[in-house]
Design a protein that fits this description.
By secondary structure, the protein is an alpha/beta fold. It contains twelve helices and 14 strands. It binds pyridoxal-5'-phosphate.
Length: about 425
C-alpha cells in the first residue's frame, strides 16, 4: 500500500541525526506519524506529502483565529518592518496590557513573558512572596509547564500515585530536583473533601491553589458545579491565593477566559497560547497589590524577550478580533465545537462504539470508555488507549489532524463545512471499527 507520509518519514529520519528524536518538543514525537508541514491557511494545513488536513491541533492551542489570519499577518508584517526588539519600553506593552485589563476580570495588572512555563513560575513566586508561605496545592493531571517546581503529578503512573483520595506528589522527569515534590501537595480534581483536609492539616503553610479551571491537559474535564467556588472560598479562608492557569482556557473559552465564563475570579491567572495568535507570548494577570510586588523589586522577574514588539503586535491584533462584537468569534467557535462534540457522540453511538466527549466547544476531548463519570485524571486512566490510537490514525488518514491525546481545539476559522467533513470522516473511521 502506498505510504501517504513518505516525505515526512524521510525528513524525520534525517532530523533524528541532529535533533533528539527528530523533534523540537518531545510531546510532538508521540503523534501517530510526526508530520512535517509546508503550508497552512485558516483551519487547514498541508503536509510535505501534499496531504491536506482540517487542523484541530492548532499548534497545540495558539491559533485561535486559525492560520495566517489577515489581521495578525498585517500586524506582524507592519511590525517586522520596524525594530524587532528594544529590550526597553514601547507603546504596545501598555496597549495590550489595557486590552487584557478590559477583557479579563482578575487583571488589575499584567506582565508579559514568552512561554506559559515562565508565566506559571512568576505567578507562583508572587503567591509565595505575597503570603510568605511555601506550599502549593496542585491537582493530578494538570499541566503547568515543564519546569522542575511544577512538573509534579502531571501524568503519574497509577501504581506510583497513591490512593485517589490522597494522591502522592510524583515527580515527572528524570533529572528533576527531587525536593520539587516536597513543595507541592497533590490533590484530585473535583474532590473537595481531600483539599479541605489538606488545608486543615497545613493551611498555614499553603501559599496557593493552582488549577487549570478546565482540566484540558488530561481529558478536558470541566469543574463540577460549585467546585471552583469552593476552592476560592477555602483558599481565602486560609489566607492562600487562588491561581488559575488559563494558558489553554484564556481567550478561548470566552474573551475573559474561564474566569469570566464560569464566574469565579482568581487572585492571579496565567495566559499564553491563544493570546499571541501564533507568536510566543504569555502573561500573568492579577490583583494589583500582589502584582505590584514586581514593581517594588521585592519579587525578581525578568526575560530578555519579555514584551517583545512582534509578539505584542500579534496579540494586539488577536485580542482586538476576539473582543469585537462582545466576543462573537469565540461564541461561534464554541458553538461549532459543541455541535462537533454532539455529532461525534451520535456517530459513535450509531456505530455501537462507547465514546464520550468532555470539555467545552473550543477545547474538548474524546474518551473511548464505558464510564459514566469522568471527573478526574484517574477516571481517564481506563480509557481505551488502543482504540484512541486507531481513531487518531484513522482520522489522520481521512484528513483530520488531532492532538495525540484525542483533544480537539476549534478556532474562529473553522466553519460548518469543516464540522460536516469531520463528522463524515469520524463516521467512516467508526464504521471500520464496528
Ligand atoms: C495549562 C498549561 N499551563 C502551562 C503550559 C506551559 O506553556 P508553554 O508550553 O508555553 O511553556 C501549558 C502548555 O501546554 C499549558 O497547557
Amino acid at each position: 500500500m502506498e505510504d501517504r507520509y513518505r516525505n515526512s518519514r524521510a525528513m524525520l529520519e534525517r532530523a533524528r541525526a541532529s535533533l533528539p528524536g527528530g523533534v523540537s518538543s518531545p510531546f510532538r514525537a508521540k503523534f501517530p506519524v510526526p508530520l512535517y508541514f509546508q503550508d497552512a491557511g485558516g483551519a487547514r494545513v498541508r503536509d510535505v506529502d501534499g496531504n491536506e488536513y482540517i487542523d484541530y491541533a492548532l499548534a497545540w492551542g495558539p491559533l485561535i483565529l486559525g492560520h495566517r489570519h489577515p489581521a495578525v499577518v498585517e500586524a506582524v508584517r507592519r511590525q517586522a518592518e520596524k525594530p524587532h526588539i528594544y529590550g526597553a519600553e514601547h507603546e504596545l506593552e501598555y496597549l495590550v496590557g489595557e486590552q487584557v485589563q478590559a477583557m479579563v476580570p482578575c487583571a488589575g495588572r499584567v506582565v508579559f513573558t514568552s512561554s506559559g512555563s515562565e508565566a506559571v513560575q512568576a505567578a507562583l513566586r508572587l503567591a509565595r512572596a505575597f503570603t510568605g508561605r511555601r506550599l502549593v496545592v496542585k491537582f493530578e493531571g494538570h499541566y503547568h509547564g515543564w519546569l522542575d517546581s511544577v512538573l509534579v503529578s502531571y501524568h503519574p503512573k497509577e501504581a506510583e500515585a497513591g490512593p485517589a483520595g490522597r494522591p502522592r506528589s510524583v515527580l515527572g522527569s528524570a533529572g528533576q530536583v527531587p525536593n520539587a515534590a516536597e513543595n507541592v501537595l497533590a490533590a484530585s480534581w473535583n474532590s473537595l473533601e481531600p483539599v479541605e483536609q489538606l488545608f486543615e492539616a497545613r493551611g498555614g503553610e499553603i501559599a496557593a491553589v493552582i488549577a487549570e479551571p478546565v482540566l484540558c491537559n488530561s481529558g478536558s474535564l470541566m469543574p463540577e458545579p460549585g467546585f471552583l467556588e469552593a476552592l476560592a472560598k477555602l483558599a481565602r479562608a486560609h489566607g492562600a491565593l487562588l491561581v488559575f492557569d488559563e494558558i489553554i482556557t484564556g481567550f478561548r473559552m470566552s474573551p475573559g477566559g474561564a474566569q469570566a465564563a464560569l464566574g469565579v475570579v482568581p487572585d492571579l491567572a496565567t495566559f499564553g497560547k491563544a493570546m499571541g495568535g501564533g507568536l510566543p507570548l504569555s502573561a500573568v494577570a492579577g490583583r494589583a497589590e500582589i502584582m505590584d510586588l514586581l514593581a517594588r523589586g521585592q519579587v525578581a522577574f525578568g526575560g530578555t524577550f519579555n514584551g517583545n514588539p512582534l509578539s505584542l503586535a500579534a496579540a494586539n491584533a488577536t485580542l482586538g478580533e476576539l473582543a469585537r462584537g462582545d466576543g462573537e468569534l469565540l461564541r461561534e467557535a464554541n458553538r461549532l465545537g459543541q455541535a462537533l462534540m454532539e455529532g461525534l457522540e451520535q456517530a459513535a453511538e450509531a456505530a455501537g462504539i462507547p465514546m464520550r466527549t468532555t470539555g467545552f466547544g473550543a477545547a474538548f476531548s474524546v474518551h473511548f470508555t464505558q464510564r459514566a463519570v469522568l471527573a478526574s485524571y484517574r477516571d481517564c486512566l481506563q480509557d481505551d488507549a488502543a482504540r484512541l490510537q486507531r481513531f487518531l490514525r484513522g482520522m489522520l488518514d481521512e484528513g483530520i489532524y488531532l492532538l495525540p491525546d484525542g483533544r480537539f481545539y476549534v478556532s474562529a476559522a473553522h466553519g460548518r463545512a469543516e464540522v460536516e467533513e469531520t463528522l463524515r470522516a469520524a463516521a467512516a473511521v467508526f464504521a471500520r471499527e464496528a
